[in-house]
Input
Amino acid sequence: MAMMLAATPVPTNSVFDLAIQGGVMMIPIALCSLIVVAVVAERFTVLRMRRVVPPKIRKGLRSAVEKGGQQGISDLRAITAKRNNPAARLLDAGVAKLGHTTELIEKHMGAAGEKEVYTLRRGLRVLTVVAAVAPLLGLTGTIFGMIRSFQTVAASGDNLGKAELLAAGIYEAMVTTAAGLLVAMPTVVFVHWFAGKIERLARELDGLAVEFVEAFVLEAPAPVVFRSKPAAIADVAASNENGVLAESAVGSVADD
Output
């Protein structure tokens, strides 16, 4: 009796064997996994702080701010012209518009910053699409596999062994669902991780822009000029400088 109740060992399949059993829907799932690997590797290379905001650019901006004036602007222009990174392009956009109004410089740098952030976000949409599509591909493969399983059972004329046929078909069909989920779950994690990293990099770029504008663009507030009754006020000021108070001038101011 003990020998009859002993469990039959189930053969262990390799990952490749499972992929083959998954059917044709494993092909697009495999392509999705390759796309994820390629995009993640590329974003890991691009979204580095030292590449987006290099220390030399930060140090050069602070040195230019300390020098100030035309000498600081010339040094900053020389630094940004030699670099090809988001921080250098952002500062170069502001340096190129120096001499114009503050609103125009800020607008120009804002547009340059938005362009750089858009470049940093490149690839995230692809990962988002893969994270949404991969489980659907797996579910579709499972549905097709179950349909084939029930067709096999329905076409079988033998009443014995139908449960085994159905179980084997469902077992193979579930492989695609598992594969789709295995592709989608890490992809979602990478999407959120990259989004947070891009947000931090955008704040760093915004900080450089603010430091540049405060150092080289913003001007001291213009003095208040009284434009009403200028002649009477000028007469009073001239009389006070000479130590003599002109009654006529004061009277005219009071009347006004």
